[in-house]
Amino acid sequence: MSEITRFGISIDSTLLKSFDQIIAQKGYTNRSEALRDLIRDSLVQAEWQAGSKETIGTISIVYSHTTRELSEVLNHLQHRYYKSIISTTHIHLDEHNCLEVLIVRGQGEEIKKISDRLIGTRGVKHGKLSLTTTGKGLK
Ligand code: NI
Q: What does 68-109 look like in DSSP terms, one character per residue?
């Protein structure tokens, strides 16, 4: 493990008060841990935005299986990108609506492309990509 460095921060008191309220709501017991998580998150964001690094993420999509040919189109797309899609869970939300959650792994730009294709498919009601990291390189 690398050594710990302490540093001071100059910050507007109103901004700090708001930050303290938010982190208390999230259950942090001190600012340091909250700040470390924020820094880690921005490093993860930078990592996947760099495009070529290995990234992992989840894509969720909501659609109606009764929409003409939509299930076939989505299935076709998922087979096309089978190398990056590790797992898919399909949940029938009601008589018509379905939720699919896909776990994807690969280069950031490839994952973004798969996500854009799926979420952008005509008839998909809602979609969300959440990217994280394999954890390598994060302390
Ligand atoms: Ni379904």
A: TTHHHHHHHHHHHTTTTEEEEEEEE-SSSEEEEEEEEEEEHH
